[in-house]
Specification:
By secondary structure, the protein is α/β, with parallel strands linked by helices. Helix content is 51%, strand content 7%. Helix 8 crosses helix 12 and helix 13 crosses helix 14. It is elongated and about 70 Å long. About 4% of the residues have low confidence.
Length: 356
C-alpha cells in the first residue's frame, strides 16, 4: 500500500507561469509544493517536519541560483532526489549537475509528453518514503530536550562543517577567518572595557567572535576565480559585480535558516555581520550603502577585523608586519565609527598576539 501513496515534489522556480505549467502537466502524478526561490526551498527541506520526496529545481533564479542551491544542499547533507530544470543543457551544466547528484534533467520550454515521461521514470525509481530530512539540518529545533547551549553548539558545528567542506574542496584552510574571529574577540573585549559596547557583555564575546568567523559564508555562490581575486569587484562585468556584492545577503540568508529560539541572538548577530561587514559609516560600502544609523557595532567590529586581516595578509606578502597593517588601518577614515577606531588604537599588542 505504501507504494500507492503519491510522492510529494517541490517545484523551485521564480517564474509563476513555469510553476503553474508544471503543476498542470504533473496533475495526478504526484503531490506538489512550490517555492519561489532557492532560500524558500532550503527553508522547506531543512525543516524537521519536511516531507518532500523530490525537487524540481530551476537553474536560472535571482539571488541564489540552482547550482548555488545544489552546493549548499550537498554541504548540508540534504539527500533528496533533484531534477534540474534548464533552458541550456550544456555539457558544462550537465557535468556540474552530475557532480552534485542531480538525477535527471527537464528542458525549457516544457513539452507535456516529455516531462511526464521523465517524471514518471523518476517517481517510479524513488524509494518509498524518500522524503528524507536534511542530515545537516541548519534549522536547529531538533531535539526539544536539548539545552540551549547544545542547540547553539549544533548550529555552530553545522556552519563550521559547511565552511570546512567548502575550503577542503578548494585545498584551502580557514586561517583568514580564524584570524577574523580572534581580532573581533579582542576588539569586542576592548570596547566593553572602555564602556563603548552598550548591551554587550563579557559573556557575549565568544559567540559574537564566532559569528564574525562566518562573515563570508555566502562566498560559496561565487566562482573561485572571482571570490579570491585581489580585488573581486574588478573581475568581470556589472553582472559579476552584482553577484559578488550579493554574497553578503546570501550568507545572511543561510545563517537565518535557523529558526531555533535558543540560537536567535547568535543568528541575529551573525546574519548582521554577513550582510553588512562590507558596509561603511560614510555610506560608501556595499551591498546597500547604508549609513551610520544602520551600521551596527557588531557589523563594524566584524568589518574592521576582516579588513585588518586582509591587509595583514597583503603586508606580510610584501615583507611587512601586523604592526604595519594596523598603522595603515588607523590612517583610514570614514570606514568605521570613532569608538571602533579608538578600540583598535588602544589594544595593539593584543591584536598582534591574536594573529596565528
Amino acid at each position: 500500500m505504501a507504494d500507492d501513496v503519491k510522492k510529494k515534489i517541490l517545484i523551485v522556480d521564480d517564474s509563476d507561469l513555469d510553476r503553474e505549467i508544471l503543476k498542470v502537466i504533473l496533475e495526478g502524478m504526484c503531490e506538489i509544493e512550490e517555492a519561489t526561490d532557492a532560500f524558500e526551498a532550503l527553508e522547506n527541506v531543512c525543516s524537521p517536519d519536511s516531507d518532500i520526496d523530490g525537487i524540481m529545481l530551476d537553474v536560472q533564479m535571482p539571488g541564489l541560483d540552482g547550482f548555488g542551491f545544489l552546493r549548499i544542499a550537498r554541504l548540508l547533507n540534504i539527500n533528496i532526489p533533484i531534477v534540474l530544470i534548464t533552458a541550456e543543457a550544456t555539457r558544462e551544466n550537465v557535468a556540474k549537475a552530475a557532480q552534485s547528484g542531480v538525477i535527471s534533467f527537464i528542458s525549457k520550454p516544457f513539452h507535456r509528453e516529455s516531462v511526464q515521461a521523465r517524471m514518471n521514470s523518476v517517481l517510479k525509481n524513488m524509494a518509498p518514503g524518500a522524503g528524507a530530512s536534511a542530515g545537516g539540518n541548519a534549522g536547529g529545533g531538533g531535539n526539544s530536550a536539548a539545552s540551549d547551549e547544545d542547540e547553539l553548539a549544533d548550529l555552530v558545528k553545522t556552519l563550521e562543517d559547511i565552511m570546512k567542506s567548502y575550503f577542503k574542496a578548494r585545498k584551502m584552510n580557514d586561517k583568514r577567518y580564524k584570524n577574523v574571529e580572534a581580532v573581533a574577540e579582542v576588539l569586542f573585549g576592548e570596547l566593553i572595557r572602555k564602556g563603548k559596547a552598550e548591551g554587550i557583555t563579557e559573556e557575549d564575546i565568544p559567540y559574537l567572535a564566532k559569528a564574525a568567523y562566518f562573515c563570508d559564508l555566502g562566498l560559496m555562490i561565487i566562482p573561485d576565480e572571482q571570490a579570491y581575486a585581489e580585488d573581486p569587484l574588478k573581475v568581470g562585468g556589472w553582472q559579476e559585480k552584482m553577484v559578488y556584492k550579493n554574497h553578503t545577503t546570501v550568507g545572511a540568508q543561510i545563517v537565518s535558516l535557523s529558526t531555533s529560539p535558543a540560537c536567535s541572538k547568535f543568528v541575529e548577530a551573525c546574519a548582521d555581520m554577513c550582510q553588512n561587514h562590507h558596509e561603511r559609516v560614510d555610506g560608501k560600502g556595499y551591498p546597500r550603502s547604508i549609513g551610520p544609523s544602520d551600521f551596527s557595532l557588531n557589523a563594524q567590529v566584524c568589518g574592521m577585523a576582516y579588513d585588518l586581516v586582509v591587509l595583514v595578509e597583503k603586508k606580510q606578502a610584501e615583507g611587512g608586519s601586523v604592526e604595519d597593517a594596523i598603522a595603515e588601518m588607523e590612517r583610514t577614515s570614514g570606514n568605521y565609527g570613532l569608538e571602533v577606531f579608538d578600540a583598535l588604537g588602544s589594544c595593539h599588542s593584543r591584536i598582534v598576539a591574536a594573529f596565528r
